[in-house]
Structure prediction request, 120 residues.
Amino acid sequence: MGSLPPDLGDLASLRKLDLDSNQLSVENPLELTNLSQLRELMLRGNLLSGTIPPELALLSKLEGLFLSNNDLSGITPPKLAELSNLRMFSFYGNDLSGPVPSALRGIPSSGYDTLGWGDD
Prediction:
């Protein structure tokens, strides 16, 4: 199991972060919120747990947010509606509950009907 490098947040000009399938077990990756130029965040297929951090809404330039196939639970934070540049996301393969936030309903998703909200 891995963790994020402590100085990752120092890469302020980073535009794409692909850490798919790295067995990351970070519960709340708040280091990422310093990446003000980030356009794509890919953390699929890891061991992330806990809730989706509402602080991800601070990544105002984010266009793609990919968190599928982790161990995330709880509701999808309504604050993610503040990501006005978000164009695609994937949250499936988690144990998310509650309704899909209305602000996310019009955004394309890979596996929109299997986001982890009961997978029905």
Observations:
- The chain has no helices and seven strands.
